[in-house]
From TrEMBL, chain B:
The gene is khpA. Signal peptide: none annotated. It holds the Pfam family KH_KhpA-B. One of its GO terms (biological process) is peptidoglycan biosynthetic process. One of its GO terms (molecular function) is RNA binding. This is RNA-binding protein KhpA.
Amino acid sequence: MADNDLDKYLSDLGIDTHEDESSPLAPTPYVEAESFAREDKGERLSYDAPVSTVSGDYTERCESFLVTLLLNLDPGYATEVREVEGGLEANIYGGDAGKIIGRGGRTLAALEYLTNAVVNKDESVPHVRVSVDVGGYKERRDERLRGVALKAAARARKTGFAVELEPMSAAERRVVHMTLADDAAVESESSGEGKNRRVVVKPR
Amino acid sequence: MVTELVAFVVQNLVSEPERLEITTREGAQGLFIEIRCAPEDAGRIIGRGGRTINSIRTLARAASEGQERVEVQLSNP
């Protein structure tokens, strides 16, 4: 399916592909669901899933969750989890990387969010931050964003005017802010709402 | 595969996985997955601002590879 077709398909479903990850629940899906239910075509089946929950320490829970989840997406995926400072780093290899990244990294963001929720389910113990990457996708994205940030900083310094960047997700904006955090000549802040939220780089 | 994936994720989010009821309906419009859970688990499935249920939907749609429309709904009594 071409990107444009996919966009149209998704927008027909009431899904905004450019929606910010942190935006509140869009009401559309529920309306869709009701019309789905009203149609009442097809037999209603009860799915008796064997209860399968992950256990062990943070790393074990993270690994078993990702392994089982990825098996249901594509058996070609392999995953590796390692402990890093401040949390866990999971990397997914093999299979169709694009499928798990999704448009603008949306599927990967969803996978990472759910992995964090599952690994940190127990609220009585400290939480760890789990970062999930697919074949170095986030690494390449962050590298590109650092370049964008430095270029904007150079322009703001040279012209004395604020430079506004393209709209970005929270994770992407974070990389830009971190890159410029120690820059004495410029400061960065986010402005705009929802899918239009973007970083503005200003001369100090 | 899509239903298995949704069931597995939800089981690992809730405190009472034994009380989950998952029903599916495959209609002309696509696959409709309905989840019922213990009342105290609803918040864990929905998440702040609906972020958890929306992430489940995103993954379910990735699993179906655009072959069919997928809707996931939590409908507690």
